[in-house]
Amino acid sequence: MLFISGGEIVLVMVLALLFFGSKAIPDIAKTLGKGMREFKKATNEIKREFEDNTGDFKRDIDDIRSTVKSETQKISQDIDQVSSRVKYETNKLSDEVEKVSAIETEPKKTELSQEVEHPTPNEEEPATEPTPEKKQD
After folding, report:
1. Which has the higher per-residue pLDDT, 126 or 97?
2. pLDDT in tens, 101-125
3. Smallest Cα–Cα separation from 32: which of 12, 18, 46?
4. Where does this protein have compositionally biased stretches of type Basic and acidic residues (predicted)?
């Protein structure tokens, strides 16, 4: 507490008794007790006033804190929704790109090879039928 040992306290008491006398010590102790009581009362009153006056600030701070917290939660939810939508669209586009690239990487047939395999009806060579020979008269 006061970092005073028992021997030091006894020494102080003996010196006070010798200096003030036995009749004055109870009055000194009573005055010291009243002073400590008044000091404690004043300290408690200051604490109470401080808490009363800062209570409004605490409520305001708590209101601001709750508002900020709710707004950050809303923003976080909005970001999550947007990011999930972006992921969905990205996956969708990625699938489309894969389909297009798969079509483009298939072995392309040249027009000539297509014509050879599947000739068009106009381009087919006419069948060679034996034509009758004309007789000259």
Report:
1. 97
2. 877 766 554 555 555 565 555 555 5
3. 12
4. 92-121
